[in-house]
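R.M. (postdoc): so does anyone remember the format we settled on? I'll just put the C-alpha cells first.
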C-alpha cells in the first residue's frame, strides 16, 4: 500500500496577524507612553549627570571648547577639595539638626490636627479647615516681615528656633494630605473604640496611626526635604556663620578668591549636598507614592 506524503504545514499566518494586531492595538496605550516617559526621564536626569560629570573634571576640561560630556581624566580628589573650601562638616551638622527636628515636629503636629479635622465632629469644622487650607495660597515672601518681627521680639533671631518651631504647629498642605488619608478609614472603627472606653488620643495613636504609616512617611519625607533644601529661611534668620546650613554654604564659593569659583569644586560640593536627598527618595519611593496617591482616592 502506497504511503501518502503530506507537505509540511507552514507556520500559521494567524499568529503573526495576532501579534501585529496586538502591537497596533496597544501602541498608543502602552508602548508610546513608555517611550515618552523614558525620554522625559533622560531630560530630568541630565542635570544630575552634568553636575556629577563636571564635579570630576579638571580645570583643563572646564576651559575646553566645545565642552565634553565626560571628563578626560576623572579627578575624584575634587570632592575632598570641595569640602575644604567651606566648613562642610559644621554646616552638615547644623542641617542635620534642623532636618531631624523638623521631621519630629511634623510627625507630631500634622496627624493630631488632621485627626481633629477628619474624625471628630465639632461645629464649624469644615469652615475652619477651609481657612487653614487657604493659607497654602499665601506666598511666603508676603509673611517674611511679619514673621521676622515676631521672632525678633521673641529673641529667636540667629537661632534654629524660627526654622523648627513653626513645624510643630502643622503645615496646611501636610494636614490636608493626612486628613484625606484618615477619611478613608472606616468611622465605625473609631465608634467601636469609643464604646470600649478609648479616648481620642488612644484612637489616634493605637488605631488610626498604624493604618496611616504611608501618609505619615510621606509627610516626614516632605518635611525632611524642605528643611534640607531650605535656603531662604536660614538666610533670613541665621546671622552667625557657625550656624549656617549647607544650602547657604554653597555660596561660599563666590567669596573664595583663591578658588575664583571653580565650577568643578562647586559641582562636587553640590553633588554631596544632593546625594542624601536622592538616596532618601530612592529608599522611600514606594512609601512616598503610596502616601500621596492613596490619599487622593477618597
Amino acid at each position: 500500500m502506497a504511503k501518502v506524503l503530506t507537505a509540511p504545514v507552514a507556520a500559521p499566518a494567524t499568529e503573526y496577524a495576532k501579534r501585529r494586531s496586538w502591537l497596533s492595538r496597544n501602541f498608543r496605550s502602552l508602548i508610546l507612553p513608555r517611550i515618552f516617559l523614558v525620554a522625559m526621564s533622560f531630560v530630568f536626569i541630565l542635570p544630575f549627570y552634568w553636575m556629577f560629570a563636571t564635579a570630576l573634571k579638571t580645570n583643563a576640561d572646564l576651559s575646553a571648547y566645545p565642552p565634553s560630556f565626560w571628563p578626560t581624566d576623572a579627578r575624584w580628589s575634587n570632592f575632598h577639595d570641595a569640602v575644604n573650601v567651606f566648613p562642610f562638616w559644621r554646616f552638615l551638622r547644623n542641617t542635620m539638626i534642623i532636618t531631624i527636628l523638623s521631621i519630629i515636629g511634623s510627625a507630631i503636629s500634622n496627624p493630631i490636627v488632621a485627626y481633629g479635622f477628619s474624625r471628630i465632629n465639632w461645629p464649624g469644622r469644615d469652615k475652619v479647615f477651609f481657612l487653614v487650607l487657604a493659607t497654602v495660597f499665601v506666598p511666603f515672601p508676603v509673611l517674611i516681615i511679619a514673621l521676622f518681627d515676631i521672632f525678633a521680639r521673641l529673641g529667636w533671631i540667629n537661632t534654629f528656633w524660627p526654622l523648627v518651631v513653626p513645624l510643630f504647629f502643622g503645615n496646611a498642605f501636610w494636614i490636608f494630605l493626612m486628613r484625606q488619608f484618615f477619611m478613608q478609614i472606616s468611622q465605625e472603627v473609631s465608634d467601636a473604640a469609643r464604646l470600649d472606653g478609648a479616648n481620642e488620643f488612644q484612637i489616634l495613636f493605637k488605631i488610626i496611626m498604624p493604618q496611616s504609616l504611608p501618609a505619615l512617611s510621606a509627610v516626614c519625607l516632605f518635611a525632611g526635604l524642605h528643611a534640607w533644601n531650605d535656603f531662604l529661611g536660614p538666610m533670613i534668620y541665621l546671622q552667625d556663620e557657625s550656624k549656617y546650613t549647607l544650602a547657604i554654604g554653597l555660596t561660599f564659593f563666590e567669596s573664595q578668591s583663591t578658588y575664583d569659583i571653580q565650577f568643578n569644586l562647586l559641582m562636587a560640593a553640590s553633588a554631596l549636598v544632593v546625594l542624601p536627598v536622592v538616596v532618601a527618595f530612592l529608599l522611600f519611593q514606594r512609601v512616598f507614592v503610596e502616601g500621596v496617591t492613596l490619599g487622593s482616592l477618597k
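R.M.: ...and that's the designed sequence above, right after the C-alpha cells. Also worth knowing: The chain has two domains: 25-75, 87-296. Residues 13-55 form the longest helix (43 residues).
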